[in-house]
Amino acid sequence: MDSAKYLAAIDSLCVRDLAATDGESRAYRSGPGYRIESLEASHGMRDGDAAPRMAAVGDFYALRSRIAQELDDRWGRQQRPWGMGTLKLRLERGEEIPEPWATTSIVADDLDLWQPPGSDRWIALGVGYRDETDEVHVLAVASDIDPV
């Protein structure tokens, strides 16, 4: 795996202006104070057979783990994987959850989460696969909005 391209994308998220929108192809979703990028996406997994889709999900979790290990080596392990179950429940109850955490709680089961040293920004990695009408993604999240 050549992780240099993934780390370069994450480095860019660490310093970019999150208020700007630029239509860049990696953008999964963005808004004021956050950006979600697809570091890697499957092809042909939308509305497909469940077995190949779940195999792809496993591969994408392995990729996320490799990238997360490199970020742990760089920034230190700061958080345990953050499960999205509580946020999903709060959304179902009608509570307002700010972006990007509302979107990530819907598409991913958990996130690896860091706050790089000397930064107020949050960086997260997850595997987005819950929307069966979408491809499977390794998602990188940058946010100036504290995780809730």
| Number of helical elements | 4
Sequence stretches where pLDDT stays below 50 over 5 or more residues: none
Query: Which whole number gives the mean pLDDT?
Result: 90
Portion of residues within helices: 25-40%
Count of extended strands: 6
Task: Summarize the main sheet.
Answer: 6 strands, antiparallel
| Tally of discrete structural domains | 1
Global outline? globular
> What would you report as the Rg, rounded to the nearest angstrom?
15 Å
Order of helices and strands: HEEHEHHEEE
Our measurement of the CA-to-CA distance between the termini, rounded to an integer number of angstroms, reads 33 Å
Structural class: alpha+beta
- In the sheet with the most strands, the strands line up as 1-2-6-5-4-3
Note the beta-strand portion.
15-25%
Molecular structure report:
By secondary structure, this protein is an alpha+beta fold. Helix content is about 35%, strand content about 25%. It has four helices and six strands, in the order H-E-E-H-E-H-H-E-E-E. The protein has helices spanning about 5-15, 50-75, 85-90, 100-105; strands at about 25-30, 35-40, 80-85, 110-115, 120-130, 135-145. The model has no long low-confidence stretch (mean pLDDT about 90).
